Amino acid sequence: MNLRSALANIGRVFLLFLILLLLAVFFLLGVCWVVFKGPSPAARDLLIVSAMETSAAKFVPGLFFSQEEIQEIIDRNSVIPTYTITDTSSNLPPSNRPTDNTEVPPEKSFDLDAVELVEVSGSTYKGKMLIVNDPSRVYVATPTEFNLPSGGLRVEEMCKRENALAGINGGGFLDENGVGDGGCPTGLVISNGVMMNGYPSLESDVIGFDRENNLVVGHMTAQEALDRGVRDAVNFGPILIVNGEPVQVAGSGGGLNPRTAIGQRADGAVLLLVVDGRQAHSLGASYKDLIEVMMEFGAVNAANLDGGSSSLMCYEGEIITTCASLYGSRKIPTAFLVKRVE
User: Fold this and answer.
1) Which residues, 6 or more positions from 301, have their beta carbon under 8 angstroms from its beta carbon?
2) Beta carbons of 166 and 318 less than 8 angstroms apart
3) What is the reported pLDDT for 13?
4) Backbone phi, then psi, for 247, in 5-degree steps?
């Protein structure tokens, strides 16, 4: 075969690939058109809200609807923001925890060192719930610095560096078009009592633990968080449950996507939840789904963390959830880690 024939064959293969790619794009656009313009407003709204929660696919609904129409649909299918903050003054020590050397009946025992991994599932999702009885073991980890050329760190990298038992992704970061390197967090970051990112008057949804190991969730300034004794925190949302009351939800309560959330029971145990999404085995969960799961597990305070392709749980050095990213686990600026028992 001479050079001219070889080049001609390569050209044919490239042309065939281009045609197949265009057919795939037209097919996907056709499917979107059928759903967006079809007879089911509920399916339309769910697809639009799901797409608008992504970094890379936000443009798709804009091909069929105006920005005003899109925003109206989002407003009809979202969590209604709350400005209630966790009331830590009403939190009492768990009655079933031994406080001295007195013997406790087995049925009332509470092993502070215990950690339990539980499978969760619903009609559209599968995921993992990690229950950590001792809340003092849960903290926020970060890279040594933000805005480094190397970007952030992966959850499993933070777990390895800190010799942590487990970890989940934390707050948000700059992620234009879904290709951010995780090096620049958005909003407040507090680690070990030190404000790593943000400024005192910055207002945001704060999600973190105070020095008494209470999970604090609510809208406040960074200074208010520090004044409350918050030791470790990130910014994200929405808030899902405050002081035992679930927030109000409109419509579907969000789209179906990979999700990460954190909660705390009345006995102090921390609930770390990661739901797979954008997978054949798990389309994803809505915020309404997260609230239902957290309530089922007894959460009195809970909040949504960064989701999508960042959602990930690492346990004993292994990734135990399915990352939605085509390139594997992503670099991120913050993670909630679980210390090992010494």
Assistant:
1) 86, 214, 215, 216, 217, 241, 242, 243, 244, 263, 264
2) no
3) 64
4) -70, 165
* Inter-CA distances, 157 with 8, 163, 250, 321, Å: 47, 10, 38, 16
Please tell me the number of Cα atoms within 13 Å of 40 on its side-chain side. 10
Count helices and strands (H / E) in the chain: 7, 17
Better pLDDT: 169 or 12? 169
Structure tokens at 30: 């056709």
Q: Are 316 and 165 in contact (CB under 8 A)?
A: yes
Collapsed DSSP state (helix, strand, coil) of residue 186:
coil
Annotate 131-148 with b (16+ C-beta within 10 A) or e (fewer). Answer: bbbbbebbbbbbbeebee
Whether residue 27 is predicted with pLDDT greater than 60 in this model: the reply is no
Q: Both tokens of residue 229?
A: 């004794």
- Reading the block at residue 236, the tokens are 């994200």
Q: Let me know: does 81 contact 90? Beta carbons within 8 Å.
A: no
Q: Give the HSE-up count for residue 22: Cα atoms under 13 Å, Cβ half-sphere.
A: 6
Give per-residue pLDDT as tens, 247-275: 999 999 999 999 999 999 999 999 999 99
Q: Is the peptide bond before 93 cis (omega within 30 degrees of 0)?
A: no
pLDDT at 11 over 80: no
Q: Which residues contact 341 (CB under 8 A, 6 or more apart)?
A: 113, 137
Read off the pTM. 0.87
Distance CA 278, CA 285 (A): 10
Q: Would you say 316 and 158 are in contact if contact means Cβ atoms under 8 Å apart?
A: no
Band of residue 65 on the pLDDT scale cut at 50, 70, 90: confident
- Helices 41-52 and 3-37 pack at an angle, to 10 degrees, of 130
> Token pair 């035992």 is at which residue?
244
